[in-house]
Amino acid sequence: MFLRSDFNGHSKYILFCRGNEKFSPERREELISRNVQRLYISTKDTDKYLKYQERNLKYIVEDKNKSSLEKSGALYQVAKNLTEDLLDSPRSGNHIERASTWINNIVSHVLKDEDTFSSLFEVTSHDYHTYTHSINMSVIGLLFGKYLSLKPHELDSLGTGMLLHDIGKVTIPSKVISKVGRLTEEEFTAIKKHPKAGLDLLEYRSNVDGLSLKIVIQHHENHDGTGYPYGIGGSDIHLFGHISRIIDVYDAMTSNRPYASAKRPFAALSEMKEKMSVCFNEELLREFICFLGPKDPRKKLRTTDKLYNLPSFTK
């Protein structure tokens, strides 16, 4: 770890502690006496630091001296690292186990901390990549699940399914996944295979339960039966499938994608309700809007924002 020294507009980093040195009470007092607020690591040690955070995530989440934002930031950073590893090696049982442990920690954070809504939304990414989208899905899904009063074990399954929902995309050529222009019919046919491919990768994993797998296979099924891969609809879609369909679309629309800029939450919800309502369970979409509405930090409306008929969204 390094200390930073600023002089004449230039920064210099001075070694404070080597990796194999014990952080003694004397070293701690030294930092306090010098009013040092931050220590730094080399960029080449970032992966080591994230692995250290991951190993100690339970203690970070339970630390009463850390703010909700600090805990949320650590959770999100760890998730980015492990999700990238998972997508690189989707058949690794170790990575699936790491994902399961992360879910346990974030569920604990969501249930015990009343400030998780604002802090977790603050750390989520607005740039669309498969791994950031998966983390956002899990974060938003858990917060919405808490709002719906789901039980802790249901939240575990919901969060796991959301995190793993797009794992089947590792079987799709990357040039198709990241294509900027309109997909050809052949390319779209390939894309539509990813829910089943994800199910094939996960269905025999003992630490991924059936509720999580419902999300993996159903997150593109529409309420009116026009979705894929099976074209089921209505009550044939599990509750978690309906939830994942709503959040999948919402997060995609509010993120910067290769072919479209991010929409504001208000605009995304408006389009989902007015132009895509057949895709979603109407009652759940209403609940999702109620869930986001009171907590949206962007209170000021644009002149182009179209107001809803608010009484129709009351419980």
From TrEMBL:
It comes from the Bacteria. Pfam families: HD_5. InterPro entries: HD/PDEase_dom (IPR003607), HD_GYP_dom (IPR037522). Coiled coil: none annotated. Residues 108-304 form the HD-GYP domain. PROSITE patterns: HD_GYP. SUPFAM superfamilies: HD-domain/PDEase-like. This is HD-GYP domain-containing protein.
